[in-house]
Amino acid sequence: MLVQKYKDMLSGKSVIRQLSEFAAARGAEIGYENVFDYSLGNPSVPAPRDFTDRMIHLLATREPVELHGYSPSLGITQVREAVAVSLEKRFGIPYRKEHIFMTSGAAGALAHAIRLVAQPGDEILTFAPFFPEYHPYVDLTGAVLRVVPPDTERFQINFEAFEELLGEKTAAILINTPNNPSGVVYSTATLERLTNILRKKQKEYGHEIYLISDEPYREIVFEGEDAPCVSWFYDNTIMCYSFSKSLSLPGERIGYVAVSPKCRDAETMIQMCGQISRGIGHNCPPSIIQLAVAQVLEETADLKVYENNRNILYKELTDIGFTCVKPGGTFYIFPKALEEDAGAFCQKALKYDLVLVPGDTFGAPGYFRMAYCMETEKVQRSLPALRRFAAEEYGYPKRG
Amino acid sequence: MLVQKYKDMLSGKSVIRQLSEFAAARGAEIGYENVFDYSLGNPSVPAPRDFTDRMIHLLATREPVELHGYSPSLGITQVREAVAVSLEKRFGIPYRKEHIFMTSGAAGALAHAIRLVAQPGDEILTFAPFFPEYHPYVDLTGAVLRVVPPDTERFQINFEAFEELLGEKTAAILINTPNNPSGVVYSTATLERLTNILRKKQKEYGHEIYLISDEPYREIVFEGEDAPCVSWFYDNTIMCYSFSKSLSLPGERIGYVAVSPKCRDAETMIQMCGQISRGIGHNCPPSIIQLAVAQVLEETADLKVYENNRNILYKELTDIGFTCVKPGGTFYIFPKALEEDAGAFCQKALKYDLVLVPGDTFGAPGYFRMAYCMETEKVQRSLPALRRFAAEEYGYPKRG
């Protein structure tokens, strides 16, 4: 018989998916350039030219049997070394290849990180607003994901609620900074307070509480932002990285787990990733992508467009009268909807060809997400629609 | 705390891995060309030139944002379509894209296929000799892998033993033809008898028994061999394919699940694969590899070398006096060791720089595997060592 839990998941259709289907259908009618599709977090800037050149060079010069051969189960040795060297240079933490496990994107990294430390009966805490795919990542291991309600003032951490949920069963805390969907970056003060609590509770409970740090947006941080490295603050940190956003390679599925060298049993944990992999059929990310990415570790796509878009949208939204925390990174912004029911709000926006995602999906009802990874010209063209929508449906901006 | 089951797996060091480490170390001493390393199943012929050309063409001509963009969770639509068309043409079975799920190699395919139909409490049966990675694939889902002892006469199926193990709890049968490690191809008679039993037992138990067909060696079949398509025989068949061997791309991690169009709920099963994927962090195989492979579906690497090697080795082994079933495909041969303890036998072979793998690993003690994916010239150079080993250690060939 088919396994019911997967069958059941089919009925819960993704809101984001439905919205992007709407956008595609509407695009077919009026031209996709006229649909202001803020629903999907796909990078809109090309991968660095250098990545393409390195790929072509590998294909043109390397002997195919070697180039396309099996990667060792933890990743290609020189690729792991290059990642470790780059991380050490960047963050001053003495990573070695023994702390690096290459994965198929952040999804692969999180699937391994969670299995390292959590099993049925355990709890993993995360903070709203949060990436909804955390649910299947955690739920299908048999552990439970518990969501700490948001700090709606600043989208940092609601510490009161956090300390209420933290308990003996907490195996790990899963954070995402810069954050999808809020665009907010956790400050030094936030990370200090969080990790002080974790250190205290580790002692109290007599077992490790791991900090799983999901960092696909690490390289998209805007000017003047305090964006510290999570691994600086806490020894038992498992960094999960993806090159999807920094190099604009979401389809090529490449990332890594980097366990802090100060983490207890760090090297064993990386070895364990190889074993987890055997069970979930992960094996390795593709050899050629590993080799090419290792040659462009210090590069990114041209990410400036996201900051420009943030500036334009943040100004317009606040001018109109939206309540909105200013994003410090990513390509998301997460304003308060103009009515309590963000689902109804986003439904009305469709009339203006504005595709927005209700915050309910991210554990923050009453808010909505805009993914502004698109050409700046299109963001600008969307502003009149945004203004009309707020004015006609809600009478914004309100007169003083 | 770290999850103990993965930690425990670290102590069980792979015999194949240890042997290939020996081969590498010995190679550093005397030159790897002088070590007759029959331990590893890595393709030895290059990927088709056309694959390289298509990759370069994609990189040189396609807009990067589109080329490297997210693949839909079931695989790129036109790639799934191309696979379905190619399968229909090849096997006359009306596959449609709705029956195809793109995976990261056969490992990814098996991880999904097993999760579709098995959960804790269920049993999956496989036939010795078998690929040892079936254990983690099945064990880590909570289901149990039960191994049917080998038919040592022909390495087809030991039906008596099979019918004893088949029961109410059997959720699926996992077969691998052409087989690693025996090199044997299941005949029409074997598959007819197997599937007749399954049909009878499905009725008797009142639930489906799925046939999971692991087919990475499908394209490596030697002349004159009866090598029928498994999906012809049984409606509830889940085909798991990989391009690793046929296109010599093991490191690029590309394959698929193809559920038979006649399988009950076939399209639902493919949709379910997308949900399983969310939990194990699989997402999709890399976009560029999907696109390139879809353009060379009708091609293979030049696989003739494996048949030549089979001919040379089979002749030499039987001349020496080994008992040996003639392989019909793959690049493996699985003779009987010249003493009862195949581990001891393979240990002695190392003195002659012959790296052989004991059959215990594959559930067939007393046998050993030779992976003859190497240049024919090297196979030929290994023959004197093989002769000396058999003569000096065991007095083969026997006189009279």
Q: What would you say this structure looks like, in words?
A:
- The structure is a homodimer of 400-residue chains.
- In chain A, strands 2-8-7-6-5-3-4 form a 7-stranded mixed β-sheet, sandwiched between helices. In chain A, strands 9-12-11 form a 3-stranded antiparallel β-sheet. A two-stranded parallel sheet of chain A has the order 1-10.
- Chain A is globular.
- Chain A has 400 residues and is of the alpha/beta class.
- Chain A is built from 14 helices and 12 strands.
- In chain A, helix 6 packs across helix 10 (266-280).
- Helix content of chain A is 41%, strand content 12%.
- In chain A, strand 5, helix 9 (188-205) and strand 6 form a beta-alpha-beta unit.
- The interface between A and B is large, with 76 and 76 residues.
- Chains A, B: GO terms for molecular function: pyridoxal phosphate binding; transaminase activity.
- Chains A, B: Residues 61-383 form the Aminotransferase class I/classII large domain.
- Chains A, B: This is Aminotransferase.
- Chains A, B: Its EC number is 2.6.1.-.
Order of helices and strands of chain A: HHEHHHEHEHEHEHEEEHHHEHEEEH
Largest sheet of chain A: 7 strands, mixed
**Computed Rg of chain A:** 21 Å
Largest interface: A-B, 76 and 76 residues
What best-fitting shape of chain A do the alpha-carbon axes yield? globular
Oligomer: homodimer
β-strand number of chain A: 12
Considering the chains and any ligands shown, give keywords for the structure:
PyrdxlP-dep_Trfase_major (chains A, B), seven-stranded mixed β-sheet, 14 helices, aminotransferase (chains A, B), PyrdxlP-dep_Trfase_small (chains A, B), globular, homodimer
